[in-house]
Q: What sequence folds into this?
């Protein structure tokens, strides 16, 4: 850190400081977090992949469990990052005055948003990594490219956390965050290609689905875990990056407007 | 003495509300300066402009020689802010609360740890390292809030109502510590509703109301100028009270009234004039104090032209 004052003034460095705070808090309470991060996606993979999957014929050369596993990896990166960047962030901001305390240091609203997003994505990554490990253990992963599902899951987490922060920075009550899940996260979860291929949907819904950020996220992770690599994966990555960047910049703006009055 | 905080025509407007209305003040290095005023006077808004969390609408404001509009990060790295809200981190223990704050200021871990222990020792919290904030009493929490902003060795401290809600013993301990910090050369700016606190701690202070500064000066000087060395309270009500006030005003002394009392200010060494009808009422004569200044200026009754 010596001789790099330039780095210390960047939003990434400020974000890292806020990330460290969240990491400290997580490590104190990790035992209560394990259920949601590791056990829940494990149960889902077993129940749907093997239970329901036993009624479903193989397609594209994959068992249902092998088809489902990448969807669970991507969607749990989404669930955990969005939960933390909505309810978690809102509580830290409004109930615990943690943002206020940070504002009285050299850091500003952009550093706070950056740190929260990086941390929420870390939680998403932890969950995705647990699912991936279970999937490898069950022999559901057929390509070494699956290791790239981890950075992909982190990008997915950053994107969804940044989208969630736009809302957290603008809502007046914590209850208003419910709509984000009912109207945005849950519909994507059902039609984003987690449980069945998107091309089975009516054409209109299919098109709409590809504009929503979960669909390219699932497709990217599925390509990596099954080894069905294609050039489309670069386009999907670009789409996720674009969503992430725009949402992050808007979150910076909304959070500054909320905190610096 | 050099001025470390300077405001010129400082103004803050929220839509159509003017919270701070063109104020000027200079706070000198090493002094303790108080902001007094009723709720809504503009004290907290002024503090927030100084700590760069509320943009200045108009006018100029320099902190540590830097313009708040352009050097927020640099200013925030030399000030320590204790706001009204209890912003201790409930998810971390006492020591972690301090270390986490040290990281925001980019202190190396070893330095932060050493200073954290020193600060906790100084604020009598050294035996609470591993407790969480919700296990501490109100007074301890307040001391921890102050200890937390000592870690980066600020040259200026801003404290918004640092002892509100504390029991008298805890308040005394906070006063003692703040006075020691002032002894170390730290400039302290505080807001308070406790006049005894302002008298004890502040070298100079100002009284605000409706976004404007009413007076500023040293506490004793303000008492002499606006109240006088002595104050007499006369218990009276009804017609008696009205008649006595008239008679006292005819005798050219300053009076205020509230409820069933008349307050007479002996400015310029004037004795209580002999007015008819005073006998039979309970009189209490006591030294004038800052509370009298405050109430005279911000109102509880007559404001003489």
A:
């Amino acid at each position: 850190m010596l001789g790099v004052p330039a780095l210390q003034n960047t939003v990434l460095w400020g974000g890292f400081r806020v990330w460290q705070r969240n990491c400290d808090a997580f490590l104190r309470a990790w035992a209560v977090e394990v259920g949601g991060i590791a056990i829940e996606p494990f149960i889902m993979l077993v129940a749907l992949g093997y239970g329901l999957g036993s009624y479903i014929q193989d397609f594209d050369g994959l068992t249902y469990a092998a088809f489902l596993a990448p969807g669970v990896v991507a969607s749990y990166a989404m669930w955990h990052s969005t939960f933390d960047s909505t309810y978690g962030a809102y509580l830290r901001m409004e109930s615990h005055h943690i943002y206020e305390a940070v504002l009285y240091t050299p850091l500003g609203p952009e550093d706070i948003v950056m740190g929260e997003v990086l941390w929420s994505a870390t939680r998403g990554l932890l969950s995705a990594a647990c699912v991936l490990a279970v999937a490898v253990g069950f022999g559901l992963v057929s390509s070494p490219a699956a290791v790239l599902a981890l950075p992909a899951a982190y990008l997915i987490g950053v994107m969804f956390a940044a989208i969630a922060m736009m809302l957290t920075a603008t809502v007046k009550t914590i209850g208003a965050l419910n709509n984000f899940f009912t109207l945005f996260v849950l519909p994507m979860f059902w039609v984003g290609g987690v449980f069945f291929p998107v091309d089975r949907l009516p054409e209109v819904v299919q098109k709409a689905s590809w504009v929503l950020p979960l669909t390219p996220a699932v497709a990217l992770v599925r390509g990596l875990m099954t080894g069905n690599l294609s050039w489309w994966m670069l386009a999907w990555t670009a789409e996720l990056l674009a969503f992430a960047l725009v949402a992050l910049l808007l979150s910076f703006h909304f959070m500054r407007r909320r905190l610096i009055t | 003495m050099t001025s470390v905080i300077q405001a010129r025509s400082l103004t803050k407007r929220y839509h159509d509300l003017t919270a701070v209305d063109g104020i000027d003040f200079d706070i000198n290095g090493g002094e303790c300066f108080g902001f007094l005023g009723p709720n809504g006077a503009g004290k907290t808004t002024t503090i927030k402009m100084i700590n760069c969390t509320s943009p200045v609408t108009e006018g100029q404001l320099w902190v540590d020689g830097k313009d708040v509009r352009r050097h927020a990060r640099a200013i925030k790295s030399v000030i320590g802010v204790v706001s009204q809200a209890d912003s201790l981190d409930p998810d971390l223990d006492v020591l972690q609360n301090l270390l986490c704050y040290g990281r925001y200021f980019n202190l190396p871990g070893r330095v932060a740890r050493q200073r954290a222990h020193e600060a906790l020792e100084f604020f009598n919290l050294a035996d609470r390292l591993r407790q969480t904030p919700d296990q501490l009493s109100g007074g301890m929490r307040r001391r921890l809030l102050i200890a937390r902003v000592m870690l980066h060795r600020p040259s200026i401290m801003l404290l918004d109502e640092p002892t509100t809600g504390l029991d008298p013993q805890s308040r005394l301990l906070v006063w003692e510590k703040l006075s020691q910090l002032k002894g170390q050369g730290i400039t302290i700016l505080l807001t308070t509703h406790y006049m005894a606190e302002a008298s004890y701690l502040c070298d100079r202070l100002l009284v605000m109301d409706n976004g404007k500064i009413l007076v500023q000066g040293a506490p004793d000087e303000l008492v002499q100028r606006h109240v006088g060395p002595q104050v007499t309270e006369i218990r009276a009500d009804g017609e008696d009270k009205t008649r006595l006030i008239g008679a006292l005003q005819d005798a050219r002394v300053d009076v205020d009234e509230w409820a069933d009392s008349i307050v007479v200010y002996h400015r310029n060494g004037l004795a209580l004039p002999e007015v008819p009808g005073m006998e039979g009422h309970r009189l209490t004569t006591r030294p004038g104090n800052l509370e009298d200044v405050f109430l005279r200026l911000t109102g509880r009754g007559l404001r003489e032209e």
